[in-house]
Write a structure and sequence with these properties.
The protein is mostly helical and 342 residues long. It is 82% helix and 0% strand. The chain is built from 13 helices and no strands. It is globular.
């Protein structure tokens, strides 16, 4: 699987359609007026937050790649991570379909196996998932117990959500403490998926022994990286920083258009809204924006035009930054392949 022109076209057209729908919902005139209210110093701060988040996530990939034996520099890691994000933006189902494409890109760049590259990316996603869960768990607890600015009805919903996250953490901990049953389940799932491929046109199933070896290679690489505690701690810390920068980015935009909301709430909202990336659109476009708009509206009481404008502007920065950097990286990969083939 790779990024094709039709993926790029569908991804960009989908984003433009969703962008246009939100602008119409806010009102074109109101959208332009609210966006114009964001001052230049605040816009610079937003760009700095986005750059800091991009570098932080690139360094997460660098950390786990070094732990996996993939020899990449910090600058290469930032660019490769942007390329993986580009794949997430252009492929349907976001990370679910973008992850193998990203693994293939990293494998081509480093010359290492596809399974090891995917294991490194999976560890990066797990490292990113953990801080998000912690933000939702502790941030939700703080909001429920101490934040007096949100309505009581919303406070009850946040409390239920926080308890659900706590239960999920317990389930994940049990799976982590008992890895053998989880690995057997993964073997059965992949084997069933491989047998089902044989019924699809233009596809053929792989040899079952090869599938088993690939799964073992993946889980072995994943265990090797995740058992390296310094790698996991550094990666998780950098991801916390990236999560906070996204929250501050949203807060800067919202306060720039006159929405009164605390940074703690925006940092809490960001990882929750990312759950909506599971919708079957390229990069989860529409779902994340809609979730952020609804959450901010429920917790702040700002006007429709203000909130939509701030969310669309910040999501535009988040969406287009990896496209620019990722395109440059893909061009470099193609040049490298051409140069080596000479």
């Amino acid at each position: 699987m790779q990024i094709r022109r039709r993926h790029v076209a569908v991804g960009i057209l989908t984003w433009l359609a969703i962008f246009g729908a939100f602008v119409l919902l806010a009102g074109p005139t109101e959208f332009v007026e609210e966006a114009s209210d964001i001052s230049q110093p605040r816009l610079v701060g937003m760009l700095v937050m986005k750059a800091l988040g991009t570098v932080s996530m690139g360094l997460v990939l660098y950390t786990v790649s070094r732990g996996a034996g993939l020899h990449v520099s910090p600058v290469e890691s930032v660019l490769l991570n942007a390329t993986v994000s580009l794949a997430n933006n252009f492929m349907p189902f976001g990370q679910a379909s973008g992850l193998p494409v990203g693994g293939m890109i990293i494998s081509q760049w480093t010359g290492q196996s596809f399974e090891r590259s995917v294991a490194a990316l999976s560890t990066k996603e797990l490292a990113g998932f953990t801080p998000g869960v912690l933000v939702m768990l502790f941030g939700g607890s703080y909001i429920v117990l101490y934040d007096a600015t949100i309505p009581d009805q919303i406070r009850s919903l946040v409390a239920v959500f926080t308890v659900s996250i706590a239960a999920f953490v317990v389930v994940v901990a049990l799976v982590y403490r008992n890895p053998d049953p989880a690995q057997r389940s993964l073997h059965r799932f992949v084997a069933t998926l491989n047998r089902g491929v044989a019924y699809l046109p233009l596809l053929s199933k792989l040899d079952e022994a090869e599938v088993r070896d690939r799964v073992d290679s993946f889980t072995g690489s994943l265990d090797e990286i995740s058992s390296n505690k310094p790698v996991v701690v550094v990666a998780a810390s950098l991801t916390v920083l990236a999560t906070v920068t996204q929250g501050i980015l949203l807060w800067l935009a919202l306060s720039g258009v006159g929405v009164d909301i605390s940074p703690a709430l925006t940092v809490f909202i960001v990882p929750i809204s990312l759950l909506a990336s599971a919708i079957p659109t390229p990069g989860g476009s529409g779902g994340i924006e809609g979730a952020q708009i609804l959450l901010v509206f429920a917790m702040s009481g700002g006007t429709r035009a203000e909130i939509i404008t701030a969310v669309v502007v910040t999501r535009g920065l988040v969406y287009w930054t990896p496209i620019v950097l990722g395109t440059l990286t893909l061009t470099g990969i193609q040049f490298k392949k051409w140069w080596l083939a000479r």
